[in-house]
Amino acid sequence: MRKTFGFGCPTEGFGHVGVETLDMTQYLIIGVDTGGTFTDLVIRTIDNRLLVAKIPGTPANPANSVIAAILTARERYGVSDSALLVHGTTVATNALLERKGARTALITTRGFKDVLAIGRQTRSSLYTFTPSRPAPLINAEDCFEVDERVDWLGDELFAISKDGAAALAQDLAARGYESAAVCFLFSYLNSSHEAIMNDALEDAGFMTSASHLVAPEPREYERTACTVGNAFVAPVLSRYLGTLNSRLDEVNCHRLRVMQSDGGSLVPGEAARLAIRTALSGPAGGVRAAEHLAQSLGINNLITFDMGGTSTDVAMLLDGKCGVVNEGQIGPTPLRSAMYDIHTVGAGGGSIACLDSAGALRVGPQSAGADPGPAAYGRGAHLTVTDANLLLGRLPAALPLAGAVRMDVARTEALFVSLAESMGVAAPSAAAAVIELANQTMARAVRHVTTERGLDVQRCTLLSFGGAGGLHACHLADLLGITRVVVPRYPGAFSAAGLCMSGVSREFVQQFPARTLLSGAAALLSRAVATLRQNAVAWMQQQGIDTEAWSGTMVADIRYRGQAYDLKVPGVIDPVSAVNEHALDMLISSFHALHRQRFGHADQTQPTEISALRLVAVDNQDFIAMDATLPHAPSQPMDVLTLYSNESWQEADLYWRPHLATGQQFAGPAIIAQEDATLYVPDGWMCDTHVSGNLILTSSGYKAGVQ
After folding, report:
1. Which residues of the chain are modeled with pLDDT < 70?
2. CA atoms in the 13 A half-sphere facing the CB of 202
3. Contacting residues for 471 by C-beta, under 8 A, at least 6 apart
4. Kind plus residue range of the DSSP H or E element containing 226
């Protein structure tokens, strides 16, 4: 029977709380998440302890902070044994956003070289008088055409010339291209022509990205843009992973995996070839951990609120699971690969606060990052959300962030006085306005994944994590009408903990021609299930995975006839059995129910079509749920602080979280500090230390049983 791993596992304290040297003799799993401001590390020991470390990031070379974090943790906890490193990285994401990738060529079907330039007619700002579109990642002169053609059923109309493909590959090599994207018309139904072109490019020394491997999906513009995006960043990620892999001996790590956007992980070679699948690498770790926590605590409807230094990521977990989508976007680049349904906004602890040209206060999306960082870090000249929390007393100035970053209160106060004078208010009021704007931005993000999809946000629990989340969680909940907030044992390193829970996974897709009716398609689907299963087993054998110890989930993309977009219906089709008429009827019924839940209506008289069948294969891992080892006697406050709230200064107790006992309760206002994060409990909220080690925060409007 498969076990699950909760967050109430025993753990060692931080450096200044007391450390026990561990005598580890078996394999460790280390999760390292490199964010925009800090690098977070979690070690999962063989006896299911969590060891946590957090250090400032090194954005210029993230590998340095990865190695430094592992060395810090090994020295702190006395752990020296061989380990598997699971890495959440923003390298591919940053390369896309900053447009710092490889020189890339696109090879496509004759007549379709302008797909990227044409794009879609949608505009990000509908009412702009002079709209402008972001330029594609590559220029028109980087697009090349080939004489070949496959029709909408996948049948060959015009064969590709192998000699012509080889000649084009040699020509592109002579032009100095480093990477190549191949995207032919209808290759998601018949990939034979792309395979020939891809082989020719590889023979010529290219790092290649073929759309039938990167994004085997319909919609020509999105598929092409995603494939080009993968080719653009793949050499960058490949070089980074090569550098990191070459240094792992320094920290006694002998295996490396990379987190992908859907909660699974990839081996380095596959991660480099499919770099676009790591675009949500870090946030996916947090959602993966949230799924385990929801199962551990028995929470059905959970909203994840991950506030870091640069951005905030939110997701909705229904019945303890986050939905997986195949469409997303990083900047202007569309993504066509499996990813958690995560919504991101530019509001984080490092989001810059300033006045615009009209004198209005703005917060984000620009961020101070790790270098120079918020003004309070002593180097930056920009005020940020972190500075506002410091000025208002919610971030204790005497306690260093991540155990090392000392707060420069005087610098923050001087800059806020200057901003407040421009606004015509007092400095605390200006800081409170910064917090309010950030909270409103994050509340809109939560409504996007709940209210706008027909879900009652007030019947959900908010899970707060990320280094900055605890300072805003209760006020955000108040804005949304949420009355229960959960804060995990190590909120600042929660995403890194999720990395330790990700098995190797891969999605396999079988696309069907347009207008394939679902009714009467049992035999067709049975053949597709068998093919997908064979492909999954062959892949696992290549990865060295035990083919007897894996699990698979089937998802069907279904729509009504005439619709342009489909819904993903999971869990009805068995990945190891043939599809019979009963399963087909259940699949159709599940689609109608999902359509009604999402859009408020369904029409069971309308014919349904299936556009794709997906198999997500996962290498199973066992995660053992354990209760936390917490003190038995309630602790007293470390100190009494003064903080600003509701336009006045008030006293608040300061607690050190590792000292909180099981069942210890107290009312706000209070500050709960730990090395990886700080939690602000406002007036009107009650804090309870759960036996699992998680903190359960409830407001006066809390009703028992709401999940």
Report:
1. 1-27, 370, 402-404, 620-628, 701-707
2. 10
3. 349, 389, 394, 395, 678, 679, 680
4. helix 220-246
Are 289 and 7 spatial neighbours (Cβ–Cβ below 8 Å)? yes
Domain with CATH 3.40.50 in the chain: 101-233
- Extract the tokens encoding 648: 């006045």
- Provide the pLDDT for residue 573: 87
Domain with CATH 3.30.420.40 in the chain: 28-95+240-289
Q: How many CA atoms lie within 13 A of 433 on its CB side?
A: 18
Burial of 33 (0-12, 13-18, 19+ CB in 10 A): buried
How confident is the model at residue 520, as a pLDDT?
86
CB 554 within 8 Å of CB 617: no
For residue 365, is the peptide bond before it cis, meaning its omega torsion is within 30 degrees of 0? yes
Contact 555, 616 (CB under 8 A): yes
CATH number listed for the domain at residues 505-619 = 3.30.1490
Q: Which two tokens stand for residue 31?
A: 């999760």
Other beta carbons within 10 angstroms of residue 526's beta carbon come to 16
Residues whose CB is less than 8 angstroms from the CB of residue 117 and which lie 6 or more positions away in sequence, other chains included: 136, 140
- Residue 413: which of 461, 465, 376 has the closest Cα? 376
Q: Give the Cα separation of 465 and 527 in Å (integer).
A: 44
Residue with tokens 């090395």: 675
Q: Looking at the domain 28-95+240-289, which fold is it?
A: Nucleotidyltransferase; domain 5 (3.30.420)
- Specify the domain boundaries for CATH 3.30.1490 within the chain: 505-619
**CATH number for the segment(s) 101-233:** 3.40.50
User: Which residues, in sequence order, are CB contacts of 121 under 8 Å at separation 6+?
Assistant: none
Side chain identity, residue 301:
N
Instruction: Please tell me the distance from the alpha carbon of residue 60 to that of residue 433, in angstroms, as a whole number.
Output: 33
Q: With b meaning 16 or more CB within 10 Å and e meaning fewer, what string describes 695-705?
A: bbbbbeeeeee
Residue written as token pair 């190590």: 490
Output the pTM of the full model.
0.86
